[in-house]
Amino acid sequence: MSEQRIDTARIFPKALTLEGVEEGMELEEKVFGPVTREDFIRYAKASGDDNPIHQDEEYARRSGAPTVFAMGMLNAGYLATALGQWFGGADNLRRFKVRFTNRVWAGDEVACSGRVVSVQNGIVTVALEVKRRGTGPEGLNLDNEQLAITGEAEIDLGTSEGGHA
After folding, report:
1. How far apart are CA 2 and CA 14, in angstroms?
2. Confidence of residue 90 (pLDDT cuts 50, 70, 90)
3. Which of 13, 17, 53, 164 has the greatest count of CB atoms below 10 A from its CB?
């Protein structure tokens, strides 16, 4: 394993600082995708989540789904990536929780948003949302945008560790 540190300032050049956040602040939306079935397969291989409902069309149908759909944790991963882009990586992330509310289908975009709900003693609490955008599977007549994940994160911007405060 390499001892070389990742240059987070180069990867996340516009990281927010404690001085740059305030309660009620809306964070810039980050959009990923559109996601594909190949993304589901790659994620399954990387994560070990090889539940066939996400890869096997016939299995998904027999299980009551109209087709395969994204793993919830894949979409949570996109949300974690957005957090990293907003706050300069994972170094200062103290808590991250999510709740899955709707499925994300192949062809959907994954739109991540956040709003600062509090800033106390250097800890920034952010309310999070992921929306799926797309038509969804044929025959379901879904709204083109649906809430897929709600969540919350706490980011410690009150210390100099990680070089972001």
Report:
1. 26
2. confident
3. 164
Q: Is the pLDDT of residue 81 over 50?
A: yes
Domains, the chain, in order of start with CATH, read 16-163 (3.10.129.10)
Q: Which two tokens stand for residue 91?
A: 């170094």
Q: Give the Å distances, CA to CA, from 121 to 10, 87, 157.
A: 27, 17, 9
pTM of the model: 0.86
Q: How far apart are CA 116 and CA 127, in angstroms?
A: 6
β strands within the chain, DSSP E: 26-32, 93-100, 109-120, 123-133, 145-156
* Bridge partners of residue 146, in order along the sequence: 132
Whole-angstrom distance, CA of residue 55 vs CA of residue 113: 28
- Render 74-97 in DSSP notation, one character per residue: HHHHHHHHHHHHHHTSSTTEEEEE
**Residues 135-150: b if buried by 16+ CB within 10 A, e if exposed:** ebbeeeebeeebebbe
Question: With the C-alpha atoms ordered 15, 91, 41, 112, is the resulting torsion angle positive or negative?
Answer: negative
Is residue 106 a contact partner of residue 36, using CB atoms and an 8 Å limit?
A: yes
